[in-house]
Amino acid sequence: MSSKVIITGATGMVGKGVLLECLDHPDIIQILSMGRSSLNMTHPKLKELIHSDFLNYTEVKNQLVGFDSCYLCMGVSAGGLKEEKYKELTYDYTLTLAKTLLALNPNMTCTYVSGEGTDSTEQGRTMWARVKGKTENDLLKLGFKQAFMFRPGAIIPLRGIKSKTKVYQFMYDYFMWLVKLIKFLAPNSVVNTTQIGQAMINVTKSGFDKKVIRPKEIIQLSNIT
């Protein structure tokens, strides 16, 4: 069954991984990448929407109609940000877009990338985890046909993908041996960008009995054929 998808954050590590898997997948016939900057790539399936105001979609609403799923991979590091600003960039941006997309595409499936350690209680001491938890909780309440919250932990970038976060890329450049060791010792705790992309596509097509998808489930979903 053919489908049309929207991806945010495709210039980032996770979003790029999802994008590449969508480009390769025969059932996905159209991809709209939304972001502040260009991907600098072309493909017959791919269209870009460069948009700077993530709290207002009035002028571009017509371009967001007719899609089956959205893969919300846009995110920022909490490092150096106060809670108010981090909440705007993480919660406000995500919920504004999700509400817009749902109103335009009532049968849409929503998939959101948060991360291991996200606090579903919204009451913990860690700021980013509380904000991510509230974002997940409110996305699940919106009324999407399906909604899934992806919580990858350690991620191995494949297919030449680099992290935009300098500290993370430094870790990948010099400490990938440690990530691979962790994967060897605990296979279900580490995923790669390809598995995340494949899992998102498969959970959209086939559904799943859990709304919060952790590394073990990501691996499981990526192996569906």
TrEMBL record:
PANTHER family: NAD(P)-BINDING DOMAIN-CONTAINING PROTEIN, OXIDOREDUCTASE HTATIP2. SUPFAM superfamilies: NAD(P)-binding Rossmann-fold domains. This is NAD-dependent epimerase/dehydratase domain-containing protein. Its main location: membrane. One of its GO terms (cellular component) is membrane. InterPro entries: Epimerase_deHydtase (IPR001509), NAD(P)-bd_dom_sf (IPR036291). It is found in: Membrane. Residues 5-103 form the NAD-dependent epimerase/dehydratase domain.
